[in-house]
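Many introductory courses stop at the sequence. We go one step further.
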Amino acid sequence: MSEILSIITGGFRRHVPKEDGGEFGRLIPNGLSVNAVRDAIKASHELTRPGQGTYAGVPRREVLAMLAGLVRSQGPHHDPKYEKLPELAGRWFRKYDENPKIAARWYTIGSGG
């Protein structure tokens, strides 16, 4: 998992220009080392204002459940059919079943971006 994070981080930093939000690549830890996680936390404090965080307003218990599910999903015997998915995921999967091409951009509808 550490190697995968490093690949994602490196790719994001190389390919996303600063004017398109490239500085937010600092929020992704460059691996699972203590220094990498510390640097990502430091970037989070530098790049976000109060109430702006990705999970602002989400109860801590839900964030911890999401993290536990993410870790569990990386296991060799993981079967997603037994996962309890959030409501948004269910809506996205229904949209995908209706029209896979639209589902790829469905989450941006109405975002103004």
